[in-house]
Request: fold
Amino acid sequence: MTDPISMLGAGFAHVLQGGAIFHALWAVLIGIVVGALPGLTATMGVALLTTLTFSMGPNVAMLVLVCVYVGAIYGGSRSAILLNIPGTPASAASTLDGYPLARQGLAGRAMGISTLGSWLGTLFGTMILALFAPSFGEFALQFGSYEMFWVALFGIVIAGSLSGGDPLKGYIAGFLGLLVATVGQEANHAYPRFAFGNTDLAGGLGLLPVLVGVFGVAEVLNSMRGPAVKAVSSKMDSVIPHIRDVTQYWRTILRSGGLGTFIGAMPGLGEDIAAWTSYAAAKRASAEKEKFGKGSVEGLMAAETGESACVPGAIIPVLTLAVPGSAPAAVLMAAMMIHGLNPGPMLAITAPEFIYQIVAMLIIADMVKLVYGLVLVRPLLWVLLIPRARLMPIVFVLCTVGAFAITSRLFDIWVMLGAGLVGFILRELRFSMAPLVLGIVLGDLLDKNLLRGLTLSGGDLTPFFTRPISAVLCALTIFAALWSVPGLMGRLLAPFRRRPAPG
Amino acid sequence: MTAQQAPEEEAESPFSGDRAPLPPRWDLVTAAVLLAFGLGVIALAWNMPTFVEQSQTGLTAPGIVPGFHATVISLLAIVLGLRAVRRGALRAQSAPASHARTDASRLLIAAVLGTVYAGVLVGRLPFWMASALFVFAFTAIFEWELGPKGRPRRLVEAALIGLGTGLAVMLVFERIFLVRLP
Reply:
């Protein structure tokens, strides 16, 4: 039973046992609510729900977390359309056309488009995951320590330069993340780095407390600062989408799905970049460019399809390389490790069926999301009206529980507080969080593989540059770093450019 | 990237603050702090044992990886500092916006309440009680500014929300999901 169809069937059968639908129903709902509430992001949702899954089996736990992830990315569009405030950063592009549609009295239609786009996007991305992840996973088996070192470094460089904002600050954030991951005992000599005689520090900084701090505590602080949420559009037309929207914009849907999945698969870029890129590509190719930003159905469809296709895309490198494609995927990966599912190249040998189980989970989550998207309109409106002065302290309590629960150490709560304050300050100083998180997650991978590679080669650095895949990854990393140096690529490529013909 | 930035500038979002440019002087101060931090870490990494006798190579010493990261951070901090100077960090700066002070006080209150709760109350009081007190205090303080009209009602609601949160978290996490609470 190794053909993909029967493995997918087995994946569904495995996932659907033991009340899976019940878990999917509540988890997608929580995801949508978390995503819809401004200030609560998908990353925070997945991190907090990880706590709830400790006592669950790995199968149910992953289903719950995948459902929260899928739901939260979709939920962000609700507040983007109704409040002009993206519920998660991923939905920022949806405000451009979603809110103008709502102001024209078409809030229901906008939500229908967003539901349809999001549903198709996740479905498209999941299809790509099912098609390519298994074969890519087998290819990744050729990756040794040398290659994995470069994969980790490439992830930091690409996330630093492309995750939005200032590439220089992106790199600094990435390396700060890598440095945070070095605290505690290292693998080769069990030497406690930066422990200063403290046994808690010698154990290292827990991934989950740091992530809960950076995305939970920092978000609570951030959302308590600005002005309160504005009034919601009260007019509501039908949310049932038209078939014409699919037939008319099928090119946009396919393009956005492809772009979203590809950007998701790039380490650390995430849903926000996927949505912006899909939106920009749709605008460039559209016959109705002038409508973009004024309530274009095509624009909203592109943004929603792109961000939702990014979710399965971001899971592809988690499963094949143990490198997360986005910040929520980083937390999902941490949860996989907590539950003893070791993502990465070895997955193709130890548990090849897991990839198909994830595909089944994504499809179940996507279907539940579609149902909620069409049914839950009014209740989600009420959720958006919860005052943040009442919501945020509850979120903070949940953060505290989340940080403590994994190892039951009060030290982890201090780690969460510290990470939250540092994360908040770094955000204020315009450091993007995606490379920081990727650095924290990949730090261990980079550290272990560099030291393992050097031990294997007896201290010889040449295999890092001479093995074929290593050399390609090294070249890609250097190219990605040079690409972000302002003006450098233009100067390097200038001799190869053709001069325009005179006249 | 230019194609992505174009629509980004038009969007109004709570994240728009993240994209507004910072005065170059802030970058200069950040660069100085990062450089000091990077150099400090390099010094710590340098002083770590090398275990050359066990591994036959100094390249697997515990200080190599953090030393490398700290060196990169220090170099990037120097680039950040030089760029800030080129952008006018040493010239006179304009005064900060007036709303920044209100924001700062709200932030400070949220940070202090959070630290007192997670750092002091949790572990000393029963978790449900600490959480109830925190949620009540947080809600009451941030809703105080809404004015005296309806304040007693808001305070009662805050107390009920606090108590409800404390008890619900205990019930859901400890009893249903079998998670240990502080």
About this structure: Helices of chain B lie at 2-10, 16-19, 24-46, 52-55, 64-86, 99-121, 127-144, 151-176. Residues 101-176 of chain B form one domain. Chain B has two domains: 24-86, 101-176.
